[in-house]
Amino acid sequence: MRREKDNRPLDERFWSRVDIEEDSDCLVWIGLRSPRGYGIITRNRGEIRAHRFAWEFAYGPIPHGMLVCHRCDNPPCVKAEHLFLGTNLENVRDMMEKGRDWYSVDPSRALKGEEVASSTLTAGEVRQMAEFRKAGIGMRELARIYGVNHGTISRICAGKSWSHVVVAPIECQGLIEARRMWELHATGLSHREISIELGRDKSYVWRVLAGKRWPEAQPVR
User: Fold this and answer.
1) What pLDDT, in 10s, does the model give residues 114-165?
2) What are the extents of the domains in the chain?
3) Is 46 helix (H, G, I), strand (E, B) or coil?
């Protein structure tokens, strides 16, 4: 049975999924959670960590490059007073000081993707990003859309991160088609013949083979 879409305002949806945890001072997220317990809420057709939304709701936008960390070390907690901003380095140091550096104890338990507290992306966003990339949206534009740097998008597309969520390499259809143009060009076909073969405008074929479009498609010499 298909679940009806919840059209309530975001803040109303958020607080409807928050409860008081017994025997603690935490306000815990009782909605959808990641495998490691971090709350997830849908916003603008994407997903955001519940504790990050809680910070934004209480204090405003999160400065670029900063993480929202837990003083209480309770992943589903969304109580603003239990949250603080920190850099990735500060978050790692805090984790080690509290004896939560799992990888040094058991590498097989290393976290992946959104299970990592410092992650600013969710699995849903990565899957959506992969579809956008396949549709032809550039990496720099994707970085702007998702608020991460170009290197993050590049690593995902190359399969160096989030490989448990999407199959890499992630290539857009435009790049695949451009490589096909170079393959046909190598067989001796003219620009006009390639345009007929692929159903593309001759001027577009010329731009690709001149390196003005999809320069990364050019064969390595």
Assistant:
1) 444 445 678 888 888 888 887 777 788 888 877 788 888 888 887 788 887 8
2) 10-115, 123-157, 173-217
3) strand
d(CA 41, CA 169): 28
Phi, psi for residue 171 in degrees, rounded to 5 = -125, 140
- Other CB atoms within 10 A of residue 123 CB: 20
According to DSSP, residue 39 is labeled B
Rg (CA), the chain: 23
* Tens digits of residue pLDDT in 68-83: 888 888 889 999 999 9
- Structure letter (DSSP) for residue 22: T
The tens digit of pLDDT for each residue in 38-65 reads 899 888 777 888 999 999 999 999 888 7
CATH assignment, 10-115: 3.90.75
Quote the tokens at residue 126: 């990565």
Tokens of 156: 């995902």
Q: Which residues pair with 49 in a beta bridge?
A: 40
Residue 216 is classified by DSSP as G
Tokens standing for 122?
């969710």
Residues 193-197 have a mean pLDDT of 87
Interhelix angle 202-209/173-186, nearest 10 degrees: 80
CB crowding 47-79: b at 16 or more within 10 Å, else e = bbbbbbbbbeeeeeebeeebbbbbeeebbbbbb
Question: How many helices (H) and strands (E) are present in the chain, helices listed first?
Answer: 10, 6
d(CA 42, CA 131): 18
